Amino acid sequence: MGGIVITKIADNIISPLGTSTDENFRAICNGNSMLRGHSGAFGLPEDFCGSLFNRNELESRINTEIANSETFTFFEKLCIFSAKKAIEDCRLSACEADVLFILSTTKGNVEYLAESATDERCFLAGSAKKIAEYFKNTNPPLVVSNACISGVCAQIAAVRALLSGRYRHAIVIGCDVLSKFIVSGFQSFKALSPEPCKPYDKERIGLNLGEAAGTIILSATADNEKAQWQYIAGAIHNDANHISGPSRTGEGAFRVILDILKEISTDEIAFINTHGTSTAYNDEMESIALHRAQLDDVPVTGLKGNYGHTLGAAGIIETILSMKAVDNKLVLPTKGFENSGTSYPVNVSAETRTTDKTAFIKILSGFGGSNAGIAYRKGGLQ
Amino acid sequence: MKTLAHVRITPTDTSVNGATVSSASLAGLYREFAGDYPKFFKMDSLCKLGFMAAELCLKNLSADEKENTAVILFNRNGSLVTDRNYQKTIESDNYFPSPALFVYTLANIVTGEIAIRHKIYGETSFYVLDSRDETLMDEIVSDTLLTSSPRYILTGFVEYENEQNYIADIKLVTK
Fold it and tell me: pLDDT tens for residues B42-97?
């Protein structure tokens, strides 16, 4: 196990802002967002503000790009479309026995429960199997279902499988699509903002939900020319406090950051891409955790003002965009932020900033008291 | 990987390290082996099942030992039973979504309930698999022991379908 270096060799983001990582990155740099008010969507009695795909248009396009598209749900098509683009980019032979598929999702095809309580499509691992089979891969795929932190946990699961030597490549796909099921649940929690969200702002009043799919391919192969980013550390900790509210002391997030700082020096960190959902409690909790870890001065960025909270996709797409930011020597703007509204002000800005540093930390927190973080450093395998 | 304790709960038999300790239902097990945690009754069935398995499996660990223990659980249907119950509350003619129910439409909540009860600040993870694949579960757990810091992992398969059909097969392992 010693000496194995894990690198990222390909990625893709499919979102309402674009169907490639580059399109998405340009959209973020331009301050774009598809957060819009939606009335009557999914048959919901209440309006909400979210970032939704133009489902018909995107689905028609995907149908021309993937074989047997009629056998897959929209959720599965998104996963396949995203993975296919990343796989083609690094020319990986995804059918090989040393390739593992990992799916990060919170609710998969849950919308089909409205049709039948026994709809087989609602089994998350069934979706994962269909996706892996599309690429003729026969290894049992993993589904990481850790609520909002799934996207980072899935990357950590991939790293472990690669370090064990059992696999040489892991294709990590994160995706969630919205439905009456998911939106009504967040509405019942009074967690949603009727306007585009304002992370860390004193006037923040809640989160927005969003749809997206993303893929990161991690590899333990030493000679890939695409290997531009190295995995440094990852950690998962529970708050042991509450199933639906973050810890007032930021305990789990603090422990995640401490674990990561054992492997990377604060001086190296260009920024921390946080969860920054824009709920009163999440952003406050993160500010406390960052302060306790003495990271008050490190730039913080959040992407929820562009995408909303994309659930199982969040950890994947936010990691990819963090890599792109460092590639371009940028600290991305936090759309929606104006005036600091947390007990310990975080170093966040609505403007794009520059950086010469080459590493970042991505953190997430979620239901179940769960917290996760991962750090990457730019640099291949010289 | 060494197993320190093993608990198996089904509707008709609960065993610890292979010896039957009860034939009670989940509520009966709570009265026999816990009894001091009224939050139990707010939980969905998957959480009650995981919670009771953890009660019996973690009995001999000290608070210090629990603190960095990891909880890594698996099943096949995720939170589907509660998903179905929640779905019934959002049908158009009968719309009353409740946050108390919605929160249990995430399979990993059971790991959170266990963490809260035992003051576990370690990793909590939930994986959904296509079948109950013991080899795969053991691989994931031994990889976790090899590549991260926990000394102990509470792990296993926990799946609830209905009152006649549920299983928790949970063990406490160490390197």
Answer: 999 999 999 999 999 999 999 999 999 999 999 999 999 999 999 999 998 889 99
Kindly determine whether residue B80 and residue A114, on different chains, have CB atoms separated by under 8 Å. no
Q: What is the CATH number of the domain that holds B166?
A: 3.40.47.10
Which of A162, A190, A258, A370 should one mutate to test binding to chain B, selecting the residue with the greatest count of B CBs within 10 A? A370
Query: Domain ranges in chain A?
Result: 7-219, 229-378
| CATH 1.10.1740.10, applies to A7-219 | no
For A258-324, the DSSP string reads HHHHTTS-GGGEEEEE------HHHHHHHHHHHHHTT-TTSEEE--HHHH-B-GGGHHHHHHHHHHH
- If you count residue pairs, one on A and one on B, with CB atoms under 8 Å apart, how many are there? 167
Say if the Cβ atoms of B112 and A370 lie within 8 Å: yes
Tell me which chain B residues have a C-beta less than 8 angstroms from the C-beta of A160.
Answer: 140, 143-144, 146-148
Number of independent structural domains in chain B: 1
- Residue owning tokens 């026999």: B32
Q: How far is CA B28 from CA A226, A293, B34, B158, B159, in A?
A: 58, 44, 10, 18, 18
List all residues of chain A from 331 to 370 with a beta carbon under 8 Å from chain B.
367-370
Contacts with A88 (C-beta within 8 Å, 6 or more apart), sequence order: none
Tell me whether domains A7-219 and A229-378 share a fold. Answer: yes
Decide which of 3.30.565.10, 2.60.40.10, 3.40.50.720, 3.40.47.10 is the CATH code for A229-378: 3.40.47.10
The answer, yes or no, to whether ipTM is higher than 0.95 is yes
Give the residue numbers spanning the domain of B79.
2-174
Residue of B nearest to A238 (CA): B121
Residues of B in contact with A367 (CB under 8 A): 103, 106, 108-109, 112
Instruction: Using CB atoms, pick whichever of B76, B84, B124 lies closest to residue A368.
Output: B124
